[in-house]
């Protein structure tokens, strides 16, 4: 067993050495792709600007090609972000699985000491909320659905542009308001800019499709990693909830414990605590601001209701004092306020 543990430690060290190299290579590949796509978008911008004063159909087609190039650049950036998210989720999954294994091992060995209780409490506080993980899974699922719909639309576009000589008159016929763009007697010009633009759109769509598929694959990996994290999180939380009540997590309350209260209070109110709390609060607010906004709105509403209740209860009190005007409705209204 010691030999196997040593081999496992060696393999983990090797993996830790290769992971930074993989991250560097991914960043370099993303940077190269970013530069190439930026040059493509710049050229499409120049083309759209040059054709903007020409026929309306040609100008619209050039602008749509520019939008397609911009979509390629955005998808490439989103792909790099998805890969970074996948690396973070895989690291989080490894931490959760390691905590689950270590906690189960400590409990199976019969650990009931104060140190074990403190360690288990620390693991419970470190766990990411299940609601946040489920929210990320739902968001990833929605993104996958949108990408698959976009791939369907891209496939339809490629089928329409597969036969360019037929696609050009079809597009001109659909654009009925631009009849003056058609050449007389139904003949095509020797260098039709619309046909060149549609050929360019087909090439752009063929370059965009593999980017979308790579992003779909990355998001599927993210979804699987998040689901595995959620399962490990749920198992660890259930196990800790079952055992924490029966394991000591602090020293007995005696004279020494009371003597340590001043130091503990000083540690609680030191400035670094407030800085850390402010940072965590900012991150939590950025992740989900709805509970904070709802809490502030509830407090403001309660203050306003208190002011109104005081003004409303005074005339109700005068009515209730008069036995000839008093009724249960007035009493219930007073309780409501």
Detail the topology: elements first, then pairings.
Layout: H1 2-51, H2 56-108, H3 114-126, H4 130-160, H5 164-174, H6 193-243, H7 255-259, H8 261-268, H9 271-287, H10 290-321, H11 328-336
Helix pairs in contact: 1-2, 2-6, 4-6, 5-6, 10-11
Q: How does this structure look, described?
A:
With 337 residues, the protein is mostly helical. 83% of the residues lie in helices and 0% in strands. It contains eleven helices and no strands. The chain has helices at residues 2-51, 56-108, 114-126, 130-160, 164-174, 193-243, 255-259, 261-268, 271-287, 290-321, 328-336. The longest helix is centred in the N-terminal third of the chain and has 53 residues, at 56-108. The relative contact order is 0.08.
The helix tally amounts to 11
Mean pLDDT: 79
User: Strand count, sense and closure of the main sheet?
Assistant: none
Helicity range: over 70%
* SS-derived structural category: mainly alpha
List SSEs in N-to-C order.
Answer: HHHHHHHHHHH
């Amino acid at each position: 067993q010691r030999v196997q543990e040593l081999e496992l430690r060696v393999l983990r060290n090797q993996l830790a050495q290769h992971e930074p190299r993989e991250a560097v290579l991914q960043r370099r590949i993303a940077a190269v792709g970013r530069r190439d796509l930026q040059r493509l978008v710049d050229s499409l911008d120049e083309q759209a600007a040059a054709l903007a004063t020409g026929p309306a159909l040609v100008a619209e087609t050039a602008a749509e090609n520019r939008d397609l190039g911009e979509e390629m650049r955005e998808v490439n950036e989103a792909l790099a972000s998805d890969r970074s998210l996948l690396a973070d989720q895989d690291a989080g999954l490894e931490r959760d699985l390691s905590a689950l294994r270590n906690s189960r091992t400590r409990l199976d060995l019969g650990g009931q000491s104060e140190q074990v209780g403190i360690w288990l409490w620390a693991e419970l506080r470190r766990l990411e909320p299940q609601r946040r993980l489920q929210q990320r899974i739902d968001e990833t699922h929605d993104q996958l659905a949108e990408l698959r719909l976009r791939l369907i639309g891209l496939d339809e576009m490629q089928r329409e542009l597969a036969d360019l000589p037929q696609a050009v008159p079809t597009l001109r016929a659909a654009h009925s308001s631009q009849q003056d763009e058609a050449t007389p007697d139904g003949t095509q010009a020797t260098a039709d800019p619309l046909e060149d633009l549609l050929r360019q759109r087909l090439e752009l769509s063929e370059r965009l499709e593999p980017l979308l598929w790579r992003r779909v694959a990355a998001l599927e990996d993210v979804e699987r990693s998040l689901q595995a994290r959620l399962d490990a999180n749920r198992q660890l939380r259930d196990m800790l909830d079952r055992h924490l009540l029966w394991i000591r997590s602090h020293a007995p309350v005696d004279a020494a414990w009371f003597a340590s209260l001043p130091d503990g209070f000083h540690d609680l109110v030191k400035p670094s605590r407030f800085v850390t709390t402010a940072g965590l609060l900012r991150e939590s607010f950025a992740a989900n601001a709805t509970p904070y906004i709802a809490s502030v709105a509830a407090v403001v509403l309660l203050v306003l209701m208190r002011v109104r209740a005081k003004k409303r209860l005074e005339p109700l009190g005068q009515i209730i004092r008069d036995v000839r005007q008093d009724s249960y409705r007035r009493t219930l209204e007073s309780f409501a306020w």
